[in-house]
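A quick aside before the break. I want you to see a complete sequence-to-structure record at least once, exactly as it would be stored in a machine-readable document. Don't worry about memorizing anything.
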Amino acid sequence: MPERTARRPTRAASKSAESKVQRAAKLAPGFAIVIHEIGRGRGRAQPQVELARIAPDTAAGEEVELALGSGEVVRLSRARWQEVSGEIRDLVREQLAALEAEEREALLERLVLASAQPGWSSPQLSAALHGLREVLRERLPRCAIEDRRPAGLSVEALLALDQRSFWINGWMHDEDGQGAVTIVSPESARVEVTRGAVRYERPDVVQFYAKLGADRTRKHGFTAFFTLPAPSLLPGGWLAELRTGDGLQLEIACLAPVADVHAARAAILGELAARGPIDGPLAAEHGRHALTLLQERIVGESQIASVEVYGQPPRRPATSIVVPLYKRLDFLEHQLLHFSRDPDLADCELIYVLDSVEQTDELAGKARELFALHGLPFTVVELTASAGFAGANRHGIAVARGRRLLLLNSDVIPDRPGWLAAMNDFYEATPRIGALGPKLLYEDDSLQHAGLCFHRAPGGRLWENAHCFKGLHRSFPAANVARAVPAVTGACMLIDRELYEQVGGLPLHYLQGDYEDSELCLRLHDAGRENWYLPAVELYHLEGQSYAAGVRRTQSEYNMWLHTELWGDRIEQAMADFDPHAADEAPPPAIATEIARV
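That is the input. The structure line, written in tokens, reads:
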């Protein structure tokens, strides 16, 4: 993973240095370029050019305080400041433009590294640094892609994950296959992206350059996640430079990075799927870093926009039911119809979190109609942006008041009343319980969930979430015994709120509602708890009808890989101790027997 690290200088004690600063010029609001002498070498004073931040509380006073990029603080009298300061264009023309190319490149790099200090980054400073780069940089010959010229470079995608983290893919061609590609931000931060990049064959590039004869390498393609040493806040002005093995240097201009978080995520997932097995080095060394950042952005950019309460919820609910809503608002109608016929639900807090924000107006009208029809109180949490499954649950839990949480999918429908009271009774009576899940059924009365375990294909490395006895009839004997299981589904999961928060809740690094529940259950195992399956409670689960199967496939494969990377050893241990068929002979707890008789 290519990375350049910004220096973090330690600020020295403030001191007066009237004679130290020889020249200065304002670069951007609150910032200046300062030239001072730092000693003698080769018989002459050596000028040091630094970025300086002008302390806002001294800009109009008797003194001007400058925090230099090197960490030192310099104070100048107002008279001295007026004496040494001038226009930036004059300073550049008279002091900087005559420097050698390598000196100018080092200067630009030093200035952009200084801009990485906390609180220094701003759009105005980025624009000023970009302007300075365009004046001082040594322009390289443009790289023209022609089949008779061996040197070629193309950046086909540049994705902005945050202000310092980016994803790049493209291809390069040179005679000996030893070339290197450096990306240059608009502000002049530089990273050699081919160092550590995943390289792969590009038959189209090989064919294009076939006239040149034998190709020393067929792996012309490159993809990398990289981080800049300083934030980049400008959309345009990116460059890519190619240095060939024989010393030739060329450059190209890059398109502006794609900044939309969902488009960037889709592009990265598409590339992971196209580059062979999902568990290869592209995911491990680059994709995981990039997708984790994007998931954090998605959740971080989503805030609670409003909380609408319909009716009068109980003042002190024992249980809060949190239901994310995505696209299929008709599920709300079916759930509320069944919930309204269950007296136990009147004592619970029912919270719906709308994760498809474009449906806000539609849901508002539907919610009013459904409350008027059924009279069951419920709360609707509306968001500023989609947060995904785990993020939507997080927002719902933030407004919940119950001491227990029931995480529930919108496509789960009770078979009969009394289900929640039965789950609470079992939870209360079971020592060291972590999460509790009921029996979930398909519409044809076959089993969808009778506890979660893990499956690994013969000869495979990755562990997949597996539902015990999936597809068998609801009356299958082994599926009708309450027992401890490795995990339970988040489609319907009861858990103590304090315990949920203690182990960190649903993780945010998985994509679109997949494997969060099993990781939560594995955390509960590590905290000394057991997860239980309760077959006496039955609900129907329509399973995944808010998403197209093709959309989920690559995401699910990535999630399975990530889950194995994080928890593979723990899963191995859990499965060594678990036999789902042992439930045939295991006596059920007394409370489960009592519930089954109700």
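Two observations worth writing down. DSSP finds 15 helices and 28 strands in the chain. Residues 506 and 520 are 6 Å apart (CA to CA). We'll return to this after the break.
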